[in-house]
Amino acid sequence: MADQPSYIHVRYDDHGAKGRVARVTIANARKLNTMSTPLMEEFTAIFAELARDDSLLAVVLTGEGEKAFVGGANIDEMAGLDEHKARAFITRVHGCCNAVRQVPVPVIARINGYTLGAGLELAAACDLRIAVDSAVFGMPEVKLGIPSVVEAALLPGLIGWGRTRQILLLGENFSAAKAEKWGFVEKLVPAADLDATVDEWLASLVECGPVSIRLQKKLIRDWEDLPLRAAVAAGIDSFATAWKGEEPRRMMDDFLKAREESRKAK
Known about the structure:
With 266 residues, the protein is α/β, with parallel strands linked by helices. Helix content is 50%, strand content 17%. It has helices at 37-51, 75-78, 83-102, 118-125, 155-159, 161-170, 176-182, 194-207, 210-225, 228-242, 247-265; strands spanning 8-14, 20-26, 56-63, 68-70, 107-111, 114-116, 128-132, 136-138, 174-175, 187-189. The strands form two sheets. The protein has a six-stranded mixed beta sheet with strand order 1-2-3-5-7-10, sandwiched between helices. A four-stranded mixed beta sheet has the order 4-6-8-9. It starts with 7 loop residues before the first strand and ends with a helix. The model has no long low-confidence stretch (mean pLDDT 97).
């Protein structure tokens, strides 16, 4: 029997003692990187491994080719679902999004084209989003007889309730320019500048304290679920936790020394 094809490709950038960055590619370009059950099972397994990697600094998630980040869930598979299979299928979609959210380091969505349905939910699950200016976004599920679900619930926090209703109820695609204007995408660039801009963000992340970055991501995720008083209390706990290690003292000492040298040089 032939081996199962691999749909998820991972390569690493080594940053020496600081750690490494994982670049994850959903490799199903022939079908616009749409999410089938085998692809999703491989995806969640790989992200579970990444979550256990103590040397990890950040993850870049993208789709293979130049046409699509993720063009949605696989319609050929969905067309054969019944109620029981539908629950299992959409739970797998959620599992992919949740796996991204559970990785303890920032995940950057490198959006290189169509980002539709489950693909938009996966992008919403990432911590930062950078897109080519030709990318197309949308939640077309209602035009296929199903509601938009799972991590579509993140959209109101990103773009507001009114725009969420607009894209979910009308099912119409929207441009990269609107995605940036609405706040779904943090940065928009020409295709030729996509990788360089992602690398600029990575360079900034690598310069930060790795422990503090992990604490910050966890705290942001907690804030999404907590009322204000509890969110503030969680922040106090996180701040105190940071001082259990040597990172704050070392990085502040480096800052103070650099500041003093700068003053002497003037």
